[in-house]
Amino acid sequence: MKTFFLGAPASSPATLWRSRGYIPHFDQSDLIQLMTFRLYDAVPETLIDRWKQELAWVEKLSAKDPRQIALRKRIAKYEDIGYGECWLRNEQIASLAECVLLHFDGERYRIIAWCIMPNHIHVIIETQEGYFLWEIVHSWKSYIVHEANKLLHRSGRFWFREYHDRYIRDDDHLRNAVEYVENNPVKAGLAGTKEEWRWSSAWNRQKLEDSP
Q: Which has the closest alpha carbon to 37: 142, 154, 162, 133?
């Protein structure tokens, strides 16, 4: 794998962290990040509230706080259950999401790995100078919900408001993150191998390798 070692962030993290709700976000262009966004009903908010009580949650926790880490793990595990409407299981909507993610790949950002699960999406992305992750995610979510609601003949809430992001520290972290993203369907029992899951970078890479 190509080396992507980043070293220390170019700017002080203290000035680049921002928070909207209970998830802190790190925003800086020219940075590789693992991010996840999910459908609004993938994890019941009442369940998240209960977990926060159990973890003695307080607002504006650091991303490295054990309570933040524990909550993220619980949410990630629950996402894989396949709770909710799981609209991303619909092939038309999964194809739409794939096209949206890859549309500006190589221009506004570089996607290193991605996976569209039934009720959430993982992306490892390197943003280009002048583009910020929150702007990119907002454009993805806005376009997908607009078109997906038309396909589903529905209106109303589609995405959970927040997303989770974590910047990649070094090569080992990147390799582990790619493995995590591409193996998510296997871990969730949706595929036997990561290459079998149609809506992922692993499947696309295998397709290119098999092409004459």
A: 162
* pLDDT tens per residue across all 212 residues of the chain: 333 333 333 333 333 434 344 344 455 566 899 999 999 999 999 999 999 999 998 887 777 889 989 999 999 999 999 999 999 999 999 999 999 999 999 999 999 999 999 999 999 999 988 888 889 999 999 999 999 999 999 999 999 988 888 888 889 999 999 999 999 999 999 999 999 999 999 999 998 888 77
What is the rounded distance in angstroms from the CA atom of residue 86 to the CA atom of residue 104? Answer: 25
- H-state helical runs in 8-132: 13-16, 45-54, 66-79, 91-103
Distance, in Å, from the CA atom of 38 to the CA atom of 56, rounded to the nearest integer, reads 24
Residue 158 lies in a domain: yes
Q: Which residue's structure tokens are 């990649």?
A: 168
DSSP category for residue 136: H
SS3 at position 72: helix
Question: Is the residue at 29 inside a domain?
Answer: yes
Integer Cα distance of 129 and 81 in angstroms: 37
Instruction: Work out the angle at residue 105's Cα, subtended by the Cα atoms of residues 39 and 75, and round it to the nearest 5 degrees.
Output: 25
In a domain, 17, yes or no: no
SS3 label, residue 106: coil
